[in-house]
Amino acid sequence: AYSGTWTVDGESATAGPEAGIDVRFSARRVFLVLGSPDRERDVRVSLDGKPIGAADAGTDVEDGVVRVGQQRLYSLVDLPEPGEHTLSLRFDDGVTGYAFTFG
After folding, report:
1. Best CA proximity match to 11, nearest among 71, 67, 61
2. Cα 11 vs. chain centroid, distance in angstroms?
3. Mean pLDDT, to the nearest integer, of 6-29?
4. CB of 59 within 8 A of CB of 53?
């Protein structure tokens, strides 16, 4: 579910004020192609209603935050085993998202 303001086109969505995404998933790993072309911006990552801990965070998450720069696949979640969870992302204005993948 989207929240806040988004600009959506055929292949991407760009965050505006108070932009967020909440995703229910059943997997071990979560990845998202993101980009911020002109400068680095932050995406805050929560898992099941709490800031994601280091043990569950993907390799691109530090202290619950992803610093997004060049467009690429970012690793957000890396759990010890698959399960049902809710991932919540809160975006700085100007971050563009393209596609989730799950593993």
Report:
1. 71
2. 16
3. 96
4. no
